[in-house]
């Protein structure tokens, strides 16, 4: 059986203190709250997982209705950012490239411009972690 001291050494006092309340009678209340939270998260995880997959699949199916896939050739481009016609609207493309330009000098996620051959300046490498 694991004692409260053993649990504190495994989880750290800081982690357990997040579940402590001033009105707790003793550390057992804190541990009980931690275990209740663990059980609650375990119970919710399958439902959240299913919801995430459902939303992602629904968005994908809706996007297939909006985008004319016959004009796209994903198998012939190394990165979706290079797709012509672009997948993003002009304002969306600008919104995506603006923060990147501000944080990484000389980088643009503009799919109209060809990707840089230098991996340090390749927006696809930044997004996907791959090199062209």
How would you describe this protein?
Mean pLDDT is 75; it is low at 100-107 and 128-132. The chain is mainly alpha-helical. 8% of the residues are buried. The protein has five helices and no strands. The protein is elongated. The longest helix has 40 residues, at 27-66.
Number of helices: 5
Give the helix proportion (percent range): 55-70%
Number of strands: 0
The pLDDT mean sits at: 75
Can you write the helix and strand succession as a string? Answer: HHHHH
**Helix-strand category:** mainly alpha
Overall geometric form? elongated
Low-confidence stretches: 100-107, 128-132
**Relative strand content:** under 5%
* Biggest β-sheet description: none
> CA-to-CA gap between the ends?
54 Å
**Rg over C-alpha atoms, rounded to the nearest angstrom:** 24 Å
Quick tags:
132 residues; mainly alpha; 0% strand; disordered C terminus
């Amino acid at each position: 059986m694991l004692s409260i001291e053993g649990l504190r050494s495994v989880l750290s006092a800081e982690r357990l203190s997040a579940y402590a309340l001033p009105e707790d009678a003793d550390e057992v209340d804190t541990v009980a709250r931690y275990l209740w939270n663990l059980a609650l998260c375990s119970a919710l995880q399958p439902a959240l997982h299913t919801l995430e997959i459902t939303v992602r699949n629904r968005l994908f199916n809706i996007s297939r209705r909006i985008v004319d896939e016959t004009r796209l050739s994903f198998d012939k481009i190394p990165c979706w950012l290079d797709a012509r016609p672009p997948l993003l609207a002009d304002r969306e493309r600008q919104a995506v490239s603006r923060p990147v330009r501000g944080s990484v000098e000389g980088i643009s996620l503009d799919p109209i411009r060809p990707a840089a051959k230098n991996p340090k300046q390749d927006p696809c490498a930044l997004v996907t972690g791959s090199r062209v």
